[in-house]
Amino acid sequence: MVLEQRYRWKNRHLREHVSVLDGKLSPMILLKNARYLNQAFRKWITANIWIYGDRIVYVGEKLPEKIEQCEVVDCTGLTLVPGYIEPHAHPFQLYNPHSLASYASQFGTTTLINDNMVLALQQDKKKAFSFLKEMRNMPATTYWWCRFDAQTEIQHEESVFSHGNVKSWLEHDAVLQGGELTGWPKLLDGDDMMLHWIQETKRMRKKIEGHFPGASEKTLAKLMLLGADCDHESMTGKDVYNRLLQGYTVSLRYSSIRPDLPILLDEMHDIGIDQYDRMIFTTDGSFSSFYEQGIIDHMIRIAIDKGVPVIDAYNMATINVARHYGIDYLHGSIATGRVANINFLSDESEPTPISVIAKGEWVKRDGENLHAYKPVQWEEFGFEPMNIDWELTADDMQFSMPFGIKMENAVITKPYSITIDVSAEELEKDHDECFFMLVDRNGHWRMNTVLKGFSKSLDGMASSFSNTGDIILIGKSKHEMLNAFNRLKEIGGGIVISEGGKVVQEMELRLKGVMSHKNVEDLMEEEKQLVHCLRDKGYRHEDPMYTLLFFSSTHLPYIRITQQGMYDVMNKTVLFPTIMR
């Protein structure tokens, strides 16, 4: 089997590539008079670029002898840069890995290094790996990470993140790194299995991605000793400085919940950081509406506006990432032998491309989307709609917990004492407390409490979009919550809002109940309508989608609602177990 993800071309392909230079074969695309970024010289150079199949076979002054099967493009007046790389994608944020890659390539991001969390939690290994293989057939390039923990307290974690499963993922050719290390406190506390997996990752010459928000210099040093290579959680210029000092590659973030990049650059410049070779960019799994302005291209634009030298700004999106992951023989530059991922710019100060080639194929031409991405037959890979073959009843709507969960911001939650009467069918709308439930996607257990700070006037909402794909119910009215849930069943997963006995807003997530099958542009409009509806009902934090995703996430303080029950993150204890149904 050819492992095309690593582009190990067969011998005959390599002979063909050489035959193009010998004049026996014609290139497929010839880019003449191309002013391009040459990172070896750190200069803009003019050359002719020959492309055969998905590979650049020559860059230089020569022109090919044969051009009868060749598309010749005069690049005079254009500026060419390598395709951009997103090193830290979460490709399941309502969109899916295919729709994200298709959308991203229109903005010049043609390589994505993806989180495998949903695949690890929701799919068996065989189906997951067949999906990874399918992803190789599209113009964008997708690599993956291997998670070491669920980022929450799940039931049967030892079978999901078994040694065998983790090792198979690490050995997979499309996997470039282990992490992100959301479970690093366990690692520091002596979790030897996690340390073993890190050792195995390093033995395979793969990277370890950290997740170290607020970590002290000493903690950063310890984690570097244990194997971490990169971290994307810098929130200040000093954070960047500390990570660089301890030998990390620093991923600068600009995401929908942490749009830090402009502040980071200002503070870095204030403290005299003016070298960028150890820095890369990430949008860290933003939701779709944040991507209207672009993806990595927008980060390059911000960097240039903030005074980063133009070539450094492009390098942070291309060659720096490729070097970090040891894939610079394939990606990150326009040079002989590299994969033909090329962005055509009107000007070096405008990083959003007017045309894009990905794996030697035009995906955007003169501003027009060429729709080069063929649809995926999702059900073949186990991404079918949720089949909820069980009922929720009024008996399930029992709320007797002594304390509830209070939202400090979009993602931080603390415990608080419940003083309102929760035995009623409906709660008053003069306060921001709602009934709150997490229900097993298979109907085996439930967890009922009260949520403060989410909404003042939301009657009922049901969401299968969550960290684990279990079902979240929130609302003032038990009846409306049940109504939203019943509609969720009908559509096979999604997010549904019910009011006055009828559904007023819904988003269908027919891929396992956590992802939409729609393209990103259509999804954006649905997402905006949903967020607007929740804001009308009194949601006042940054992003309700992150809130839904992170209710169960035990890498965040202080109290979480998980498959095990109500969980105290700091003391690592289950305060109240889930109730079996």
Automatic annotation (TrEMBL):
The keyword Hydrolase is annotated on this UniProt entry: yes
Spans through the membrane: none
Keywords: Hydrolase
Positions of the Adenine deaminase C-terminal domain: 411-572
Class of enzymatic activity (EC top level): hydrolase
Matching InterPro entries: Adenine_deam_C, Amidohydro-rel, Metal-dep_hydrolase_composite, Metal_Hydrolase
Entry annotated with the keyword NAD: no
GO molecular function: adenine deaminase activity
Catalytic activities: adenine + H2O + H(+) = hypoxanthine + NH4(+)
Occurrences of domain Amidohydrolase-related (ranges): 79-363
EC number: 3.5.4.2
Domain of life: Bacteria
Family: Belongs to the metallo-dependent hydrolases superfamily. Adenine deaminase family.
Protein name, as recorded: adenine deaminase
